[in-house]
Amino acid sequence: MHYQAALASCCLRYGTRRLLRQHVRAGGTPIKEPRVNEKIRVKEVRLVDPNGGQIGIKPIDEARWLASQLELDLVEVAPEARPPVVRLMDYGKFKYEQSVKAREARKKQTRTVVKEVQFRPKIGASDFEVKRKRVVRFLQDNDKVKVTMRFRGREVTHPEIGNDILNRLRDSVADYGEIETPPRLEGRQMTMVLAPVRSSDRPSEEIETADIDVIVVEEADE
Hints:
- 37% of the residues lie in helices and 26% in strands.
- By secondary structure, the protein is of the alpha/beta class.
- Strand 1 and strand 2 form a beta hairpin.
- Helix 1 packs across helix 2.
């Protein structure tokens, strides 16, 4: 019970609905939003002003009267306390401000995006340069790049050719990316993962963020 009271208090500070959803997704017992105004049905409460100062223990009717005079809401922040603790606040404004803060925080959040570029062992110099520039662009966008060397038929008997091409690519984009996973042969394909270097070390400062994890496949030339 003490845990639920603490969680309810955190909800008031950091955004009620979002924290409650996170709590339920984590396997916790669903918790209702704090009781507000007429939904607070006790004889007396410990009243807290909008700035967190203690007003003291008051009959609920007096607390409601004070809230109406100040044009504020009564919000129960510690229902398990005896008497329950309620706070004077503009609850609607509070929830709106918290939702705005949550949206801004999500906008600033950066998630890793993995994009894939595929090569063939017989790739020509011009095609190699096109794909190299594509890899550089992805790394400049702060995305990881999965480089896949696809072998066909007896090509797989000469994996060193694919390995040399991947190493040449690695060296040619060293200003933008670094090896996260070295070349590794898996069946008929060899893969390597490049991660973007720190923004301060890049020739270009243009960086974009992504909201979700995706994999974009760039097909190998026939």
